User: Fold these one by one.
Assistant:
Number 1:
Amino acid sequence: MRVVVQGGGRRGRRAGLAGVLWAGAELAVTVGVVVLLLVVHQVWWTNRQALAAAREEVRELERDWALPPPPDRPDSGDSGDSGDSGDSGDSGGSGPAVVPEASASLSAGPSVPARGTAPRASAAPPVRESAYGVLRIPRLGVVVPVAQGVDKRAVLDKGYAGHYPGTAQPGAQGNFALAGHRNTHGEPFRYINRLRAGDELIVDVRGQRYTYVVGRTLAQTSERDTGVIAPVPRSTVRPEYGYDEPGAYITLTTCTPEYTSTYRLVVWGTLKG
Protein backbone atom coordinates (compact mmCIF):
# COMPACT_ATOMS: atom_id res chain seq x y z
CA MET A 1 0.00 0.00 0.00
CA ARG A 2 1.33 3.42 -0.87
CA VAL A 3 1.43 6.12 1.80
CA VAL A 4 1.25 9.65 0.56
CA VAL A 5 2.99 12.27 2.73
CA GLN A 6 1.58 15.70 2.12
CA GLY A 7 3.51 18.98 2.66
CA GLY A 8 6.99 17.48 2.56
CA GLY A 9 7.94 19.40 -0.54
CA ARG A 10 6.88 22.68 1.03
CA ARG A 11 8.92 22.02 4.17
CA GLY A 12 11.90 21.15 2.03
CA ARG A 13 11.61 24.39 0.15
CA ARG A 14 11.37 26.29 3.44
CA ALA A 15 14.45 24.55 4.75
CA GLY A 16 16.31 25.36 1.57
CA LEU A 17 15.28 29.03 1.76
CA ALA A 18 16.35 29.19 5.41
CA GLY A 19 19.74 27.77 4.46
CA VAL A 20 20.20 30.36 1.75
CA LEU A 21 19.23 33.18 4.11
CA TRP A 22 21.60 31.86 6.79
CA ALA A 23 24.47 31.66 4.31
CA GLY A 24 23.68 35.17 3.10
CA ALA A 25 23.70 36.47 6.68
CA GLU A 26 27.05 34.81 7.36
CA LEU A 27 28.48 36.33 4.19
CA ALA A 28 27.19 39.78 5.14
CA VAL A 29 28.72 39.51 8.61
CA THR A 30 32.04 38.36 7.14
CA VAL A 31 32.10 41.23 4.64
CA GLY A 32 31.18 43.66 7.41
CA VAL A 33 34.04 42.44 9.60
CA VAL A 34 36.51 42.71 6.70
CA VAL A 35 35.34 46.24 5.91
CA LEU A 36 35.59 47.19 9.59
CA LEU A 37 39.14 45.84 9.76
CA LEU A 38 40.07 47.81 6.64
CA VAL A 39 38.63 50.98 8.17
CA VAL A 40 40.50 50.37 11.43
CA HIS A 41 43.70 49.80 9.46
CA GLN A 42 43.24 52.92 7.35
CA VAL A 43 42.10 55.29 10.08
CA TRP A 44 43.93 54.02 13.15
CA TRP A 45 46.89 51.84 12.22
CA THR A 46 48.19 53.97 9.35
CA ASN A 47 48.00 56.97 11.68
CA ARG A 48 50.11 55.22 14.30
CA GLN A 49 52.66 54.04 11.77
CA ALA A 50 52.99 57.35 9.94
CA LEU A 51 53.04 59.41 13.13
CA ALA A 52 55.77 57.26 14.69
CA ALA A 53 57.84 57.33 11.50
CA ALA A 54 57.43 61.10 11.12
CA ARG A 55 58.53 61.72 14.70
CA GLU A 56 61.57 59.52 14.17
CA GLU A 57 62.41 61.46 11.00
CA VAL A 58 62.28 64.72 12.97
CA ARG A 59 64.69 63.24 15.53
CA GLU A 60 66.99 62.05 12.75
CA LEU A 61 67.04 65.50 11.18
CA GLU A 62 67.80 67.18 14.48
CA ARG A 63 70.57 64.69 15.25
CA ASP A 64 72.04 65.33 11.81
CA TRP A 65 71.80 69.10 12.26
CA ALA A 66 73.63 68.82 15.58
CA LEU A 67 76.70 67.36 13.85
CA PRO A 68 79.47 69.69 12.71
CA PRO A 69 79.30 70.46 8.98
CA PRO A 70 81.38 68.26 6.69
CA PRO A 71 84.42 69.94 5.13
CA ASP A 72 83.73 71.60 1.81
CA ARG A 73 85.23 69.91 -1.20
CA PRO A 74 86.84 72.34 -3.66
CA ASP A 75 85.65 72.23 -7.24
CA SER A 76 87.90 70.12 -9.39
CA GLY A 77 88.57 73.07 -11.66
CA ASP A 78 89.39 75.56 -8.91
CA SER A 79 93.15 75.68 -8.32
CA GLY A 80 93.12 78.90 -6.38
CA ASP A 81 91.37 77.63 -3.25
CA SER A 82 93.67 76.87 -0.33
CA GLY A 83 91.42 74.20 1.16
CA ASP A 84 92.94 71.16 2.87
CA SER A 85 94.28 69.06 0.02
CA GLY A 86 94.75 66.10 2.32
CA ASP A 87 90.99 65.75 2.84
CA SER A 88 89.87 62.39 1.49
CA GLY A 89 86.52 63.93 2.12
CA ASP A 90 82.93 63.59 1.38
CA SER A 91 81.64 64.27 -2.06
CA GLY A 92 79.26 66.87 -0.71
CA GLY A 93 76.57 64.19 -0.63
CA SER A 94 74.25 66.41 1.35
CA GLY A 95 73.75 68.03 -2.05
CA PRO A 96 71.53 71.08 -2.10
CA ALA A 97 72.19 72.53 1.32
CA VAL A 98 69.45 75.05 1.93
CA VAL A 99 71.12 77.25 4.54
CA PRO A 100 74.32 77.27 6.65
CA GLU A 101 75.00 74.40 9.01
CA ALA A 102 73.72 74.40 12.60
CA SER A 103 76.01 74.04 15.57
CA ALA A 104 73.34 72.52 17.82
CA SER A 105 70.08 70.64 17.62
CA LEU A 106 67.06 72.72 16.72
CA SER A 107 65.12 70.94 19.44
CA ALA A 108 67.27 72.54 22.08
CA GLY A 109 65.32 75.76 22.43
CA PRO A 110 67.84 78.49 23.31
CA SER A 111 70.51 77.03 21.03
CA VAL A 112 68.34 77.49 17.93
CA PRO A 113 69.80 80.10 15.59
CA ALA A 114 68.04 83.43 15.40
CA ARG A 115 64.83 83.57 13.44
CA GLY A 116 64.99 84.66 9.85
CA THR A 117 63.70 88.19 9.62
CA ALA A 118 64.37 89.06 6.01
CA PRO A 119 63.57 87.01 2.91
CA ARG A 120 66.65 85.32 1.54
CA ALA A 121 67.55 84.52 -2.02
CA SER A 122 66.14 81.28 -3.43
CA ALA A 123 68.39 78.24 -3.07
CA ALA A 124 68.55 75.04 -5.06
CA PRO A 125 65.65 72.77 -4.12
CA PRO A 126 66.35 69.79 -1.87
CA VAL A 127 66.51 66.24 -3.16
CA ARG A 128 63.10 65.12 -4.39
CA GLU A 129 60.92 63.32 -1.83
CA SER A 130 63.52 63.65 0.93
CA ALA A 131 62.83 65.33 4.28
CA TYR A 132 64.93 68.45 4.74
CA GLY A 133 63.04 70.58 7.27
CA VAL A 134 60.60 70.59 10.15
CA LEU A 135 57.31 72.47 10.40
CA ARG A 136 56.13 73.35 13.90
CA ILE A 137 52.63 74.64 14.64
CA PRO A 138 52.68 75.54 18.35
CA ARG A 139 48.95 76.22 18.62
CA LEU A 140 48.17 72.67 17.46
CA GLY A 141 51.18 70.88 18.95
CA VAL A 142 52.19 69.74 15.47
CA VAL A 143 55.81 68.87 14.66
CA VAL A 144 56.14 67.34 11.19
CA PRO A 145 58.96 66.74 8.69
CA VAL A 146 58.91 68.73 5.47
CA ALA A 147 59.85 66.83 2.31
CA GLN A 148 60.32 67.93 -1.27
CA GLY A 149 57.35 66.99 -3.47
CA VAL A 150 53.70 66.15 -2.87
CA ASP A 151 53.59 62.56 -4.10
CA LYS A 152 51.01 60.70 -2.04
CA ARG A 153 52.86 57.44 -1.52
CA ALA A 154 56.41 58.80 -1.30
CA VAL A 155 55.70 61.85 0.88
CA LEU A 156 52.20 62.52 2.21
CA ASP A 157 51.38 58.94 3.27
CA LYS A 158 54.53 58.98 5.41
CA GLY A 159 52.94 61.66 7.58
CA TYR A 160 55.12 64.41 6.11
CA ALA A 161 54.19 67.86 4.89
CA GLY A 162 55.00 68.00 1.19
CA HIS A 163 56.59 71.04 -0.43
CA TYR A 164 54.93 71.89 -3.75
CA PRO A 165 57.54 71.76 -6.54
CA GLY A 166 58.19 75.14 -8.10
CA THR A 167 57.21 77.15 -5.03
CA ALA A 168 59.66 79.13 -2.91
CA GLN A 169 62.03 77.65 -0.36
CA PRO A 170 61.65 78.53 3.35
CA GLY A 171 62.40 82.17 4.09
CA ALA A 172 62.63 83.15 0.44
CA GLN A 173 60.61 85.68 -1.50
CA GLY A 174 57.55 84.03 -2.96
CA ASN A 175 55.28 81.34 -1.57
CA PHE A 176 56.58 78.38 0.43
CA ALA A 177 53.59 76.09 -0.17
CA LEU A 178 52.91 72.83 1.67
CA ALA A 179 50.34 70.02 1.47
CA GLY A 180 49.45 67.50 4.18
CA HIS A 181 46.85 64.89 5.02
CA ARG A 182 43.88 65.95 7.09
CA ASN A 183 42.82 62.38 7.87
CA THR A 184 44.81 59.13 8.03
CA HIS A 185 48.56 58.67 7.59
CA GLY A 186 49.55 60.85 10.52
CA GLU A 187 47.02 63.57 9.59
CA PRO A 188 49.39 66.46 10.39
CA PHE A 189 47.00 69.09 8.98
CA ARG A 190 43.82 67.74 10.56
CA TYR A 191 43.15 70.79 12.71
CA ILE A 192 44.61 73.63 10.65
CA ASN A 193 41.06 74.98 10.41
CA ARG A 194 41.57 76.02 14.06
CA LEU A 195 44.43 78.36 13.23
CA ARG A 196 43.73 82.04 13.71
CA ALA A 197 45.41 85.27 12.62
CA GLY A 198 48.56 85.81 14.67
CA ASP A 199 49.34 82.11 15.23
CA GLU A 200 52.93 81.15 14.43
CA LEU A 201 54.12 78.63 11.84
CA ILE A 202 57.79 77.80 12.44
CA VAL A 203 59.99 76.22 9.77
CA ASP A 204 63.37 74.81 10.79
CA VAL A 205 66.01 73.88 8.26
CA ARG A 206 69.67 73.17 8.80
CA GLY A 207 71.06 76.07 10.79
CA GLN A 208 68.11 78.43 10.44
CA ARG A 209 64.61 79.03 11.75
CA TYR A 210 61.94 80.95 9.87
CA THR A 211 58.82 82.12 11.68
CA TYR A 212 55.69 82.92 9.75
CA VAL A 213 52.51 84.47 11.16
CA VAL A 214 49.08 83.27 10.06
CA GLY A 215 47.23 86.05 8.29
CA ARG A 216 44.33 84.64 6.28
CA THR A 217 42.40 81.43 5.70
CA LEU A 218 40.18 80.09 2.92
CA ALA A 219 37.75 77.54 4.31
CA GLN A 220 36.92 75.90 0.99
CA THR A 221 38.05 76.05 -2.61
CA SER A 222 38.45 73.80 -5.63
CA GLU A 223 41.29 71.28 -5.80
CA ARG A 224 42.28 72.99 -9.07
CA ASP A 225 42.62 76.44 -7.50
CA THR A 226 46.33 76.83 -8.23
CA GLY A 227 46.21 80.52 -7.40
CA VAL A 228 46.43 79.71 -3.69
CA ILE A 229 50.04 78.53 -4.14
CA ALA A 230 51.10 81.27 -6.58
CA PRO A 231 54.10 83.48 -5.63
CA VAL A 232 51.59 86.11 -4.55
CA PRO A 233 48.81 83.82 -3.33
CA ARG A 234 45.27 84.65 -4.39
CA SER A 235 42.39 82.27 -5.06
CA THR A 236 41.31 82.07 -8.69
CA VAL A 237 37.98 80.59 -7.58
CA ARG A 238 37.25 83.13 -4.85
CA PRO A 239 39.44 86.11 -5.75
CA GLU A 240 38.38 88.07 -2.69
CA TYR A 241 40.71 85.74 -0.74
CA GLY A 242 44.45 86.20 -0.94
CA TYR A 243 47.16 88.85 -1.21
CA ASP A 244 48.11 91.60 -3.63
CA GLU A 245 51.70 92.47 -2.72
CA PRO A 246 54.91 90.48 -3.31
CA GLY A 247 56.39 89.06 -0.14
CA ALA A 248 57.56 85.94 1.66
CA TYR A 249 54.53 83.73 2.23
CA ILE A 250 53.71 80.28 3.56
CA THR A 251 50.67 78.28 2.45
CA LEU A 252 49.20 75.17 4.09
CA THR A 253 46.70 73.13 2.06
CA THR A 254 44.66 70.08 2.96
CA CYS A 255 41.43 68.32 2.02
CA THR A 256 38.03 69.37 3.29
CA PRO A 257 35.48 68.40 4.59
CA GLU A 258 37.07 65.79 6.82
CA TYR A 259 37.31 62.25 5.41
CA THR A 260 36.74 63.54 1.88
CA SER A 261 38.93 65.03 -0.82
CA THR A 262 36.26 67.14 -2.52
CA TYR A 263 37.62 70.58 -1.70
CA ARG A 264 40.73 72.24 -0.29
CA LEU A 265 41.23 74.19 2.93
CA VAL A 266 43.95 76.86 2.79
CA VAL A 267 45.88 78.75 5.48
CA TRP A 268 48.25 81.58 4.57
CA GLY A 269 50.95 83.29 6.58
CA THR A 270 53.70 85.87 6.07
CA LEU A 271 57.34 85.80 7.18
CA LYS A 272 57.80 87.50 10.51
CA GLY A 273 60.03 90.53 10.15
Number 2:
Amino acid sequence: MTKKLWFQAGVGILLALLILKYFMEINWIFAPLLIIAKTIFVPLLLGAVLFYVTEPLQRFLEKRKIPRWGSILAILISVAAVVWLFISIIGPPVINQVNNLVKSAPYIAKEITIQSENLLDVLQHREDFPEQLNDMIDKAVNSVQSIAVVFGKLIVQFFQSVFQTAFTLILVPFFFIFLLKDHEKFAPFIYNFFSGKRQVWVKKTLHDINTVLRTYIQGQLLISLILAAIMFIGYLIIGLDYSLLLVIFAFFMNVIPFIGPWIAFAPALIIAFLDPDPQMVIWVCIITLVAQQTDSNLITPNIMGKTLDIHPLTVITVILAAGNIAGFLGILLSIPAYAVGKVILKNIYDRRKEIKLAATKNV
Protein backbone atom coordinates (compact mmCIF):
# COMPACT_ATOMS: atom_id res chain seq x y z
CA MET A 1 0.00 0.00 0.00
CA THR A 2 2.88 2.38 0.76
CA LYS A 3 3.87 2.27 -2.91
CA LYS A 4 0.46 3.45 -4.11
CA LEU A 5 0.30 6.97 -5.53
CA TRP A 6 -2.80 7.92 -3.52
CA PHE A 7 -1.11 6.85 -0.26
CA GLN A 8 2.06 8.80 -1.01
CA ALA A 9 0.04 11.85 -2.04
CA GLY A 10 -2.04 11.62 1.16
CA VAL A 11 1.06 11.40 3.33
CA GLY A 12 2.57 14.34 1.50
CA ILE A 13 -0.55 16.45 2.05
CA LEU A 14 -0.70 15.55 5.74
CA LEU A 15 2.98 16.43 6.20
CA ALA A 16 2.47 19.73 4.39
CA LEU A 17 -0.50 20.57 6.64
CA LEU A 18 1.51 19.62 9.73
CA ILE A 19 4.41 21.82 8.66
CA LEU A 20 1.98 24.66 7.93
CA LYS A 21 0.39 24.25 11.38
CA TYR A 22 3.72 24.55 13.19
CA PHE A 23 4.77 27.33 10.86
CA MET A 24 1.70 29.34 11.90
CA GLU A 25 2.39 28.67 15.59
CA ILE A 26 5.96 30.00 15.38
CA ASN A 27 5.25 32.67 12.80
CA TRP A 28 7.05 35.29 14.92
CA ILE A 29 10.31 33.72 13.76
CA PHE A 30 9.36 34.06 10.10
CA ALA A 31 7.57 37.40 10.41
CA PRO A 32 10.46 39.40 8.84
CA LEU A 33 10.59 36.96 5.92
CA LEU A 34 6.82 37.28 5.42
CA ILE A 35 7.06 41.07 5.40
CA ILE A 36 9.84 40.94 2.81
CA ALA A 37 7.85 38.44 0.72
CA LYS A 38 4.71 40.62 0.82
CA THR A 39 6.75 43.68 -0.12
CA ILE A 40 8.33 42.15 -3.21
CA PHE A 41 5.41 39.93 -4.29
CA VAL A 42 3.34 42.56 -6.12
CA PRO A 43 6.33 44.19 -7.90
CA LEU A 44 7.62 40.75 -8.90
CA LEU A 45 4.16 39.77 -10.16
CA LEU A 46 3.80 42.96 -12.21
CA GLY A 47 7.34 42.59 -13.52
CA ALA A 48 6.59 39.02 -14.61
CA VAL A 49 3.38 40.13 -16.38
CA LEU A 50 5.29 42.89 -18.20
CA PHE A 51 7.97 40.37 -19.16
CA TYR A 52 5.49 37.92 -20.68
CA VAL A 53 3.73 40.76 -22.51
CA THR A 54 6.96 42.11 -24.04
CA GLU A 55 8.76 38.77 -24.47
CA PRO A 56 7.50 38.30 -28.08
CA LEU A 57 8.96 41.71 -28.98
CA GLN A 58 12.29 40.73 -27.45
CA ARG A 59 12.38 37.48 -29.43
CA PHE A 60 11.46 39.39 -32.59
CA LEU A 61 14.29 41.89 -32.10
CA GLU A 62 16.93 39.34 -31.16
CA LYS A 63 16.10 37.15 -34.16
CA ARG A 64 17.21 40.14 -36.24
CA LYS A 65 20.65 40.13 -34.60
CA ILE A 66 19.91 42.95 -32.16
CA PRO A 67 21.95 42.41 -28.96
CA ARG A 68 20.28 41.79 -25.63
CA TRP A 69 20.99 45.28 -24.29
CA GLY A 70 19.52 46.78 -27.47
CA SER A 71 16.30 44.76 -27.21
CA ILE A 72 15.92 45.69 -23.53
CA LEU A 73 16.44 49.37 -24.31
CA ALA A 74 13.91 49.23 -27.16
CA ILE A 75 11.34 47.51 -24.92
CA LEU A 76 11.82 50.03 -22.11
CA ILE A 77 11.37 52.92 -24.55
CA SER A 78 8.24 51.26 -25.96
CA VAL A 79 6.74 50.67 -22.50
CA ALA A 80 7.54 54.25 -21.45
CA ALA A 81 5.91 55.56 -24.64
CA VAL A 82 2.75 53.51 -24.02
CA VAL A 83 2.56 54.72 -20.40
CA TRP A 84 3.08 58.32 -21.49
CA LEU A 85 0.36 58.03 -24.15
CA PHE A 86 -2.01 56.50 -21.64
CA ILE A 87 -1.38 59.23 -19.06
CA SER A 88 -1.50 62.13 -21.51
CA ILE A 89 -4.41 61.00 -23.70
CA ILE A 90 -6.58 58.71 -21.57
CA GLY A 91 -5.63 60.02 -18.13
CA PRO A 92 -7.49 63.39 -18.15
CA PRO A 93 -10.88 62.02 -19.32
CA VAL A 94 -10.59 59.11 -16.89
CA ILE A 95 -9.90 61.45 -13.97
CA ASN A 96 -12.78 63.67 -15.08
CA GLN A 97 -15.18 60.71 -15.24
CA VAL A 98 -13.99 59.43 -11.85
CA ASN A 99 -14.62 62.84 -10.28
CA ASN A 100 -18.07 63.00 -11.87
CA LEU A 101 -18.87 59.49 -10.68
CA VAL A 102 -17.75 60.23 -7.13
CA LYS A 103 -19.86 63.40 -7.08
CA SER A 104 -22.85 61.57 -8.55
CA ALA A 105 -22.55 58.50 -6.29
CA PRO A 106 -25.15 59.73 -3.74
CA TYR A 107 -27.55 60.65 -6.55
CA ILE A 108 -27.02 57.28 -8.27
CA ALA A 109 -27.65 55.37 -5.05
CA LYS A 110 -30.78 57.47 -4.37
CA GLU A 111 -32.14 56.94 -7.88
CA ILE A 112 -31.56 53.20 -7.69
CA THR A 113 -33.38 53.07 -4.38
CA ILE A 114 -36.34 55.11 -5.67
CA GLN A 115 -36.73 53.15 -8.91
CA SER A 116 -36.34 49.82 -7.13
CA GLU A 117 -38.94 50.73 -4.51
CA ASN A 118 -41.37 51.93 -7.23
CA LEU A 119 -40.96 48.71 -9.17
CA LEU A 120 -41.38 46.62 -6.06
CA ASP A 121 -44.45 48.60 -4.98
CA VAL A 122 -46.13 48.08 -8.37
CA LEU A 123 -45.44 44.35 -8.34
CA GLN A 124 -46.53 43.86 -4.74
CA HIS A 125 -49.99 45.30 -5.41
CA ARG A 126 -50.72 42.65 -8.01
CA GLU A 127 -52.97 39.92 -6.66
CA ASP A 128 -51.27 37.18 -8.66
CA PHE A 129 -47.83 38.13 -7.44
CA PRO A 130 -46.32 35.16 -5.55
CA GLU A 131 -44.85 35.79 -2.14
CA GLN A 132 -41.68 33.83 -2.91
CA LEU A 133 -41.05 35.88 -6.05
CA ASN A 134 -41.63 38.98 -3.97
CA ASP A 135 -38.89 37.95 -1.55
CA MET A 136 -36.57 37.12 -4.42
CA ILE A 137 -37.04 40.53 -6.05
CA ASP A 138 -36.59 42.23 -2.70
CA LYS A 139 -33.25 40.50 -2.29
CA ALA A 140 -32.27 41.38 -5.86
CA VAL A 141 -33.10 45.05 -5.23
CA ASN A 142 -30.95 45.07 -2.12
CA SER A 143 -28.15 43.42 -4.07
CA VAL A 144 -28.33 46.03 -6.84
CA GLN A 145 -28.24 48.82 -4.29
CA SER A 146 -25.24 47.23 -2.61
CA ILE A 147 -23.46 46.81 -5.94
CA ALA A 148 -23.95 50.50 -6.75
CA VAL A 149 -22.51 51.62 -3.42
CA VAL A 150 -19.67 49.10 -3.49
CA PHE A 151 -18.75 50.01 -7.08
CA GLY A 152 -18.38 53.68 -6.14
CA LYS A 153 -16.27 52.77 -3.12
CA LEU A 154 -14.10 50.43 -5.18
CA ILE A 155 -13.29 53.18 -7.67
CA VAL A 156 -12.26 55.55 -4.89
CA GLN A 157 -10.27 52.88 -3.05
CA PHE A 158 -8.57 51.83 -6.27
CA PHE A 159 -7.15 55.26 -6.97
CA GLN A 160 -6.24 55.74 -3.32
CA SER A 161 -4.36 52.45 -3.31
CA VAL A 162 -2.49 53.48 -6.47
CA PHE A 163 -0.94 56.40 -4.64
CA GLN A 164 -0.39 54.42 -1.44
CA THR A 165 1.55 51.69 -3.24
CA ALA A 166 3.45 53.96 -5.61
CA PHE A 167 6.69 53.47 -3.67
CA THR A 168 6.33 49.70 -4.10
CA LEU A 169 5.94 50.01 -7.87
CA ILE A 170 9.40 51.55 -8.03
CA LEU A 171 10.68 47.98 -7.75
CA VAL A 172 8.75 46.85 -10.83
CA PRO A 173 11.31 48.15 -13.41
CA PHE A 174 14.13 46.36 -11.58
CA PHE A 175 12.36 43.00 -11.68
CA PHE A 176 11.26 43.65 -15.25
CA ILE A 177 14.77 44.44 -16.49
CA PHE A 178 16.20 41.48 -14.56
CA LEU A 179 13.73 39.08 -16.22
CA LEU A 180 14.42 40.51 -19.68
CA LYS A 181 18.17 40.17 -19.15
CA ASP A 182 18.51 36.78 -17.44
CA HIS A 183 15.25 34.86 -17.94
CA GLU A 184 17.05 32.00 -19.72
CA LYS A 185 19.20 31.36 -16.63
CA PHE A 186 16.32 30.56 -14.29
CA ALA A 187 15.44 27.08 -15.61
CA PRO A 188 19.07 25.83 -15.90
CA PHE A 189 19.73 27.07 -12.35
CA ILE A 190 17.01 24.68 -11.11
CA TYR A 191 17.42 21.60 -13.30
CA ASN A 192 21.23 21.57 -12.98
CA PHE A 193 20.71 20.40 -9.40
CA PHE A 194 19.53 17.09 -10.91
CA SER A 195 21.08 14.59 -13.29
CA GLY A 196 20.08 11.91 -15.75
CA LYS A 197 16.44 11.28 -16.52
CA ARG A 198 15.33 13.29 -13.50
CA GLN A 199 17.06 16.35 -14.95
CA VAL A 200 15.27 15.77 -18.26
CA TRP A 201 11.95 15.53 -16.42
CA VAL A 202 12.54 18.74 -14.43
CA LYS A 203 13.62 20.56 -17.60
CA LYS A 204 10.47 19.45 -19.45
CA THR A 205 8.25 20.39 -16.50
CA LEU A 206 9.74 23.89 -16.26
CA HIS A 207 9.32 24.33 -20.01
CA ASP A 208 5.66 23.31 -19.80
CA ILE A 209 5.06 25.68 -16.87
CA ASN A 210 6.63 28.53 -18.80
CA THR A 211 4.48 27.72 -21.84
CA VAL A 212 1.27 27.64 -19.78
CA LEU A 213 2.03 30.94 -18.03
CA ARG A 214 3.04 32.66 -21.26
CA THR A 215 -0.07 31.42 -23.07
CA TYR A 216 -2.40 32.42 -20.24
CA ILE A 217 -0.98 35.91 -19.59
CA GLN A 218 -0.51 36.91 -23.21
CA GLY A 219 -3.79 35.36 -24.32
CA GLN A 220 -5.93 36.69 -21.48
CA LEU A 221 -4.57 40.24 -21.81
CA LEU A 222 -5.11 40.20 -25.57
CA ILE A 223 -8.65 38.90 -25.11
CA SER A 224 -9.36 41.61 -22.53
CA LEU A 225 -8.00 44.29 -24.86
CA ILE A 226 -10.13 43.12 -27.80
CA LEU A 227 -13.28 42.88 -25.68
CA ALA A 228 -12.63 46.31 -24.17
CA ALA A 229 -12.24 47.78 -27.68
CA ILE A 230 -15.53 46.21 -28.83
CA MET A 231 -17.36 47.49 -25.75
CA PHE A 232 -15.85 50.97 -26.02
CA ILE A 233 -16.95 51.33 -29.64
CA GLY A 234 -20.42 50.13 -28.70
CA TYR A 235 -20.69 52.44 -25.70
CA LEU A 236 -19.57 55.43 -27.79
CA ILE A 237 -22.20 54.66 -30.44
CA ILE A 238 -25.05 54.50 -27.92
CA GLY A 239 -23.68 57.42 -25.86
CA LEU A 240 -23.44 55.65 -22.49
CA ASP A 241 -22.21 57.80 -19.59
CA TYR A 242 -18.82 57.00 -18.05
CA SER A 243 -18.05 54.80 -21.07
CA LEU A 244 -14.25 55.12 -20.80
CA LEU A 245 -14.26 54.39 -17.08
CA LEU A 246 -16.54 51.38 -17.56
CA VAL A 247 -14.34 50.02 -20.35
CA ILE A 248 -11.16 50.34 -18.26
CA PHE A 249 -12.93 48.53 -15.42
CA ALA A 250 -14.09 45.88 -17.92
CA PHE A 251 -10.54 45.45 -19.25
CA PHE A 252 -9.22 44.49 -15.81
CA MET A 253 -12.24 42.35 -14.98
CA ASN A 254 -12.08 40.46 -18.28
CA VAL A 255 -8.71 39.10 -17.19
CA ILE A 256 -10.75 36.81 -14.91
CA PRO A 257 -12.15 34.02 -17.13
CA PHE A 258 -15.94 33.51 -17.36
CA ILE A 259 -16.87 35.44 -14.20
CA GLY A 260 -14.96 38.64 -15.02
CA PRO A 261 -17.15 39.77 -17.95
CA TRP A 262 -20.30 39.47 -15.80
CA ILE A 263 -18.66 41.53 -13.06
CA ALA A 264 -17.86 44.18 -15.68
CA PHE A 265 -21.43 44.04 -16.99
CA ALA A 266 -23.03 44.92 -13.62
CA PRO A 267 -21.90 48.60 -13.34
CA ALA A 268 -22.64 49.23 -17.03
CA LEU A 269 -26.17 47.90 -16.52
CA ILE A 270 -26.66 50.15 -13.47
CA ILE A 271 -25.53 53.25 -15.40
CA ALA A 272 -27.86 52.27 -18.25
CA PHE A 273 -30.82 51.95 -15.87
CA LEU A 274 -30.26 55.53 -14.72
CA ASP A 275 -30.18 56.91 -18.26
CA PRO A 276 -33.28 58.88 -19.33
CA ASP A 277 -33.56 56.73 -22.46
CA PRO A 278 -35.21 53.42 -21.43
CA GLN A 279 -33.70 51.69 -24.47
CA MET A 280 -30.18 52.22 -23.10
CA VAL A 281 -30.49 49.03 -21.01
CA ILE A 282 -31.36 47.03 -24.12
CA TRP A 283 -28.42 48.48 -26.05
CA VAL A 284 -25.98 47.70 -23.22
CA CYS A 285 -27.26 44.12 -23.09
CA ILE A 286 -26.88 43.78 -26.87
CA ILE A 287 -23.32 45.14 -26.82
CA THR A 288 -22.38 42.79 -23.98
CA LEU A 289 -23.97 39.84 -25.79
CA VAL A 290 -22.09 40.66 -29.02
CA ALA A 291 -18.79 40.98 -27.13
CA GLN A 292 -19.32 37.71 -25.25
CA GLN A 293 -20.34 35.76 -28.34
CA THR A 294 -17.38 37.13 -30.27
CA ASP A 295 -15.11 36.10 -27.43
CA SER A 296 -16.49 32.59 -26.91
CA ASN A 297 -16.77 31.71 -30.63
CA LEU A 298 -13.87 33.55 -32.27
CA ILE A 299 -11.34 35.13 -29.92
CA THR A 300 -10.71 32.63 -27.12
CA PRO A 301 -10.58 29.46 -29.31
CA ASN A 302 -8.07 31.07 -31.68
CA ILE A 303 -5.90 32.82 -29.09
CA MET A 304 -5.93 30.42 -26.13
CA GLY A 305 -6.57 27.23 -28.10
CA LYS A 306 -6.43 24.04 -26.07
CA THR A 307 -3.21 24.85 -24.25
CA LEU A 308 -4.82 25.23 -20.83
CA ASP A 309 -7.52 22.58 -21.41
CA ILE A 310 -9.54 23.55 -18.32
CA HIS A 311 -13.29 22.92 -18.20
CA PRO A 312 -15.44 26.04 -17.60
CA LEU A 313 -17.05 24.47 -14.52
CA THR A 314 -13.59 23.85 -13.06
CA VAL A 315 -12.64 27.47 -13.76
CA ILE A 316 -15.72 28.81 -11.95
CA THR A 317 -15.21 26.45 -8.97
CA VAL A 318 -11.53 27.36 -8.62
CA ILE A 319 -12.24 31.10 -8.88
CA LEU A 320 -15.02 31.03 -6.28
CA ALA A 321 -12.94 28.94 -3.86
CA ALA A 322 -9.87 31.15 -4.30
CA GLY A 323 -11.98 34.27 -3.84
CA ASN A 324 -13.28 33.01 -0.49
CA ILE A 325 -9.78 32.08 0.64
CA ALA A 326 -7.61 34.94 -0.63
CA GLY A 327 -9.98 37.64 -1.90
CA PHE A 328 -9.48 39.47 -5.18
CA LEU A 329 -5.79 38.53 -5.45
CA GLY A 330 -6.77 34.88 -5.13
CA ILE A 331 -9.29 35.30 -7.95
CA LEU A 332 -6.61 36.75 -10.22
CA LEU A 333 -4.00 34.09 -9.47
CA SER A 334 -6.25 31.04 -9.10
CA ILE A 335 -6.43 29.95 -12.75
CA PRO A 336 -2.70 30.27 -13.59
CA ALA A 337 -1.86 28.56 -10.27
CA TYR A 338 -4.32 25.76 -11.07
CA ALA A 339 -2.87 25.43 -14.59
CA VAL A 340 0.68 25.21 -13.22
CA GLY A 341 -0.38 22.60 -10.66
CA LYS A 342 -2.13 20.61 -13.37
CA VAL A 343 1.02 20.65 -15.52
CA ILE A 344 3.16 19.43 -12.62
CA LEU A 345 0.75 16.61 -11.76
CA LYS A 346 0.49 15.60 -15.42
CA ASN A 347 4.26 15.40 -15.74
CA ILE A 348 4.49 13.39 -12.51
CA TYR A 349 1.87 10.98 -13.85
CA ASP A 350 3.68 10.64 -17.20
CA ARG A 351 6.98 10.06 -15.44
CA ARG A 352 5.49 7.31 -13.27
CA LYS A 353 4.04 5.65 -16.36
CA GLU A 354 7.48 5.67 -17.99
CA ILE A 355 9.05 4.11 -14.89
CA LYS A 356 6.40 1.38 -14.73
CA LEU A 357 6.72 0.70 -18.47
CA ALA A 358 10.52 0.42 -18.19
CA ALA A 359 10.20 -1.91 -15.19
CA THR A 360 7.75 -4.10 -17.11
CA LYS A 361 10.11 -4.35 -20.08
CA ASN A 362 13.01 -5.30 -17.81
CA VAL A 363 10.94 -8.11 -16.30
